[in-house]
Design goal:
Rossmann fold; alpha/beta; 7-stranded parallel β-sheet; 3 domains; Rna Polymerase Sigma Factor, Chain: A; 15 helices
Length: 355
């Protein structure tokens, strides 16, 4: 496989599955965690290694290291592997997704932003999602008429915080996710619920269904529901562990234990809660975005700018949503007609949000 984002949480779990199933790792692409990358190189012995920053090349224990976006695209083209696992974070992941599909490779996609900003230009038949919610929907799908779909949310770090205190929360507080151990950006996105809007957009593109919503389920044990036209509903339950969707993305079919099964007697009661726009301001714009899915580009660009500012302690937490909403209202009527426009509009929205 070609693994993009090998030192992140998805990348680490992907390599865990690769080791378990004795899969060849031809390419490793990593960011700044060179110590972990060196350990991965020692264990998996890749043919190609690409890193983010030229200044780190001397620290990598590999004979020929390349760096940067163009090197990633070249590695995807040159590699013999037919599987690309894209676990890069942010808009940076779009070009590799396009390159993988262009080269006829199967794309195991953990990079949400690819579908969020350019879903109409990606062949979803060549995409297998690495995400507990979309995996759950896929797992449940049958040859039956569907009424709607539902995915779940944990509620993020501030799901129980008094609303009056949200304006004073720190970066450190926002990074304390109650259910998952993830990277900093996606953890912030969980706290604002932007991440769940992204997942609704992804599901809409992947399953060609806009009748999709989300509810809060605090234990993160139910990941998805399918509501069938006949009035019945099925749910997908599994422990909060990404190894299961990763294993299916890598192998297609699994006939052995991956996770410890749930004990329903230990599980106890499950509770579902509405996602309130009073706590998650972006949720008020969810339907507007689903009705014009090109707004996914606007939300992503604005959100990347805003989250970076928050992580750098330049703005308070609530300003993340304010910046996103301001951009959505400014570019409300956006229509994307080509992949080139995705990149030009992305730059335009970012410029608007920075100024």
């Amino acid at each position: 496989m070609i693994l993009l984002g090998s030192t992140g949480s998805i990348g680490v779990n992907t390599l865990k599955m690769a080791k378990q199933f004795k899969l060849n790792v031809e390419v490793l692409v990593a960011g700044k965690n060179i110590d972990l990358l060196n350990e991965q190189i020692r264990v998996f012995k890749p043919s190609m290694v690409v890193i983010a920053d030229k200044r780190d090349i001397s620290r990598v224990n590999f004979s020929k290291v390349t760096f940067g976006e163009e090197a990633i695209l070249e590695a995807i083209t040159r590699a013999k592997s037919k599987l690309v696992v894209n676990a890069l974070v942010g808009f940076l992941g779009l070009k590799p997704s396009l390159e993988a599909i262009k080269n006829g490779k199967k794309l195991a996609l953990a990079n949400k932003e690819s579908l969020v900003v350019a879903g109409k230009f990606l062949d979803t038949k060549k995409i297998v999602p690495i995400d507990s919610e979309h995996f759950g929907l896929w797992y449940l799908l049958q040859d039956k008429a569907i009424s709607s779909m539902t995915i779940t949310a944990s509620g993020g770090a501030f799901r129980d915080l008094d609303l009056k205190e949200l304006s004073n929360v720190s970066v450190e507080d926002a990074l304390k996710h109650p259910s998952w151990k993830m990277g900093s950006k996606i953890t912030i996105d969980s706290a604002t619920m932007v991440n769940k809007v992204f997942e609704l957009l992804e599901a809409s593109w992947l399953f060609d269904n806009s009748k999709i919503n989300a509810v809060i389920e605090r234990k993160s044990l139910i990941h998805a529901f399918i509501n069938f036209l006949d009035g019945s509903t099925t749910a997908h339950l599994a422990r909060a562990n990404m190894c299961l969707p990763i294993a299916y993305a890598l192998l297609g079919k699994i006939n052995m234990p991956i996770l410890e099964p749930l004990n329903l007697l230990e599980l106890g009661a499950l509770k579902f809660e509405e996602i309130s726009s009073k706590r998650y301001a972006i949720w008020e714009y969810k339907d507007m975005i689903l009705q014009n899915k090109d707004l996914g580009l606007v939300l992503n660009a604005a959100n990347e700018v805003a989250v970076a500012k928050f992580l750098n302690k330049e703005i308070p937490f609530l300003d993340i949503s304010k910046i996103c909403i301001k951009a959505l209202e400014k570019f409300e009527n956006i229509k994307l007609n080509s992949i080139e426009e995705v990149f030009s509009k992305n730059a335009e929205v970012r410029s608007f949000c920075v100024s």
